[in-house]
Structures are given as C-alpha cells and as structure tokens.
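tool_call: predict_structure(chain=1)
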Amino acid sequence: MSFFQKLKNFKSSDGNRKYLNNHSSKECPQDHPDVPELNTLNWIQQKLGDSPDVMIRSLSGFKEQTNIDVTIVYIDGLIDQQLLTTMLDVLANSPISSEDDPIAWIKNHLPIGSLKSVDKNQLLVSVLEGQAIILVGEGNTVFTVSIGGGARRSIEEPTSQTVLRGPKEGFTEDISTNMALLRRILRTPDLRFDPLTIGEYTKTKVSVAFIRGIAEPEIILEVKKRLLSIETDSILESGYIEEFIQDGVYTPFPTLMNTERPDAVAGGLLEGLVAIIVDGTPFVLLAPVTFFRFFISSEDYYQRYDIASFLRIIRFSSFLVALLLPSIFIAVTTFQQEMLPTTLLISLAAQRENTPLPALIEAFLMELTFEVIREAGVRMPRAIGPAISIVGALVLGQAAVQAGLVSAAMVIVVSFTAISNFVMPAINMAAAVRLLRFTLMLLAGSLGLFGILAGLVPILVHLVSLQTFGVPYLLPAAPFKLQNMKDLVLRFPWWSMRTRPAFISHRNPVRQGSNQKPDPQLTRDERDEDQ
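tool_result:
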C-alpha cells in the first residue's frame, strides 16, 4: 500500500477524522473566522496561536489606581528591552488618580515616542513588526509603541565590494539603519523614501529612495508600478525583487545593480537613479543602470582621474579577456594555426604532442574544474577555504600537466581567464561572462574564429536591443552621446564634469559651477618679483 493510500485511509476513519478536526482547530487559528464576541486580547491570542514568544503583561498597579485594565502585548526578541523596562516603570509606578482620564494620561506621560492609536485590523501587523501594543480596558482603545530592537548586526565593512580608499561602512540587514546611512551622506530634504510592503507571509518592508528634482518622475512611477504588481508569499532578499521587476527576463546580462555600499547608492541617486531598499538584506538595488556602470567602482571617484582611467581600461580589457581568451586559443590552435608565429606554433605543438584530448575538451575540463574549485572555496568554512583553492589551483594543475592530460599553455590560458574574471567589480556581470564563455568555446571548437564572430554578433545585437526601465542598455555608446563620454571608459577630472549624465535624467542637469578648474597660485619666483 502506498503512502498516499495509507494517508487517505487514516483520514477516512471516524476517530481519526475527529482527532484531526480537534487538533487543526487548536493549532491553526488562522483558519478560524473572526469571533466578534471575544475581547481584543483573546482575539490576539487566538490569531497568534498562543505562541510562547508572545508576551502579555498586565499592569496591576495601574488597575488598582484607576480600576481599568491595561495590558501590554509584544513579541520577545523583536523589541528593545531597555525601552520596554522604561515604559513599564512609568505605567506601573507613576501616580494617577481615579479622576484622571487613563487614555489622556498615557499619551501625556509615556516617555516613548511614536505612540499611535490603531484599529483592530492593524494590530497583528504592528506586533509582528516589533511594536508593543497597549490595550486599555477591554481593548476598545489600542495604542502601538515603537520600541523595536533585538539582536542586529552592527555596521561593518562591505565584504563583496572592498576598496583601498573610501568609506568603510556597509549596509546591514535593517532597513532603518540603511536609510539612516543614506541620510548621513545626503543631508537634503529632497531625499525621499516611499515605503511599501510586499509578501503575503513575510510582509517585507521595501523603500523606494530617490532625490526629488533629480530623478525622473516617469522612472519613479515605473519602479513603484512594478513593485506594487508583485504578488508572492515571501520576499527574503532583494534578489527576489530583481527577478520580478527586471527588463529582459531571458538575458544573461544584469539590468539592475546591487551594492552594499552607501556611497555607491548615494552617488547613483545624485545621478538620477532610483534605489530599492529591502528589509533583511544589505544589498540595495539601483535602477536604471547601463552596461558600462557595472565596470565602474566607487574608488574611481576617490582616486586621481588618470589612475581611475587606467584602472577602468584594465577592467574593460579584463572583460574581453575573460570572455574571449579561451575561445580564441581553441580556434587558433585547432583551425587557424597559420596565424601563429612559427616558433610559438612549434612550442604549442610540442606541448600537445602527448595530450590525448582535443583543445575544446581540454579547455572545458579545465574550466569546469576551476568552477568546482571556486564553488568549493565559497561554500567551505573560511578557515580551510583558501587551502582548498591553493590545493586545487596548484596541485591539480601541476599534476594534470605532468600526467599529460592537459598542456601547460592551456593551464596558463584558463588561469589568466579566471583571474581576469575577478577584476570586474560587479559579481553579476562576472557571472554573465562565465556563462557566455562556454557558449563561445563551443562555437570556437566547431567553426574556429568564424564561430566566435557568429556568437559575438547576436550578443551585440541583444545588447543594443536591451533596455532597462526605458533606458537603452548601451547608452551613451549606442545611441552615441558625446557629452556623456567624460565618465565612461575614461574618467575626466571632476572640474570638467559640470553636468550629470543626461541619458538617465534630464532634470537639474547642472551639478557644479562653471570655471572649477584649479588656478595655481603665483610661483615663488613671481611672488619674490612682486615683493
């Protein structure tokens, strides 16, 4: 008899049916309709199922003085214990006469801010968000007090986007802390946060951040429209929202940027971008973003412009290397050997003389091996993760060459490709390159250089046709806009970038005054002559 047949027979018997009905009614209070004859406290207990972390405190001292019941309901672990103790001390020990109005007295004497009167429909949401509920009398009058707290991760340095020069603060999992970090940088009343709640069960707080007067209203409305259209049970991380609202569902290229650096988000807001802050994750989304923004680091704006330009050239070059180097090596060594110098061709032929596998299979095995080592280094504990990487990279690579399974040149190509993949600041763009690299390797192993061109043309056409919230993905290169080329592959000096990027927002284009180029003071010899 199958499991499902046994379960059906178990439910069909009268005794078991009665047992299931009794226990389901006790353990699943959310299935019950509202019972109007229950008072508010019993209604809350019924809805929350007598959960052990739901704390109920009755103030006997307050009742002795006013003959009115005052009850406080909160969830242990979601509130600040120090604020709770202060509130209980005031309510229990402050003198009150029977002639005083208890409701007015609570409003005037409670030292905790954000005291609000709510109706019954908002009670459960308030207590589950970490607020305390004050029930006066039979619960006809209800207040919520914002004393949220509990254990939270402190502000630390970002782990995924490290810089040598610049702020060391990173976002946390608390949305209030993240909003405060942005307020510290952008001290302007035009910085706005529009709150939303998404998720049937998680009730995740989401905030849309933008600077009024800089961000385009059409983009703000489009972001909110896509967020409000999300209907799902849960939002556990900003990646959920990214998949729901992104353009180009089947594209490997990211159309939204995620970052855990407050300075990167502030810089994006100043250029007209919109930020999506999600409670429970340190990664904030930025939209709309173009292809070239994924190669820009926050550190570029803290270094001299010549150094920043040099680093950007290295990043774009690394992108091409990570995408094309294995494919070109396979194509040249398999089909277009005449393109190689004679000395290099003889050296490669000598290395491949005892190698039993063709170049395509050899490259695939090496790439897959490195992907396994990379994933193992990420998942392993930090104490032994570097050891796994060293063993995999050195021992396996050296052993494979000595065993004659792969050539030394292939190990060099795959290793340099992997290192180039790590140069890109955005992890999601690096992941896209990893996926496309395997496709180009297959085409190179089939058709040589013609196969690589046959793969690059559709990729380029796809990039040109891709949009993010109505903004072309390859702006300002396609369509070409000369005025926005000052902060693309090369970064011009700050004093020459007087206007904001016009391809995202056309509002408030001027961000600094004219004639900001430094004017050197008189030299020492000129000062001596003047004297």
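agent: The longest helix spans residues 305-334. Proceeding to next step.
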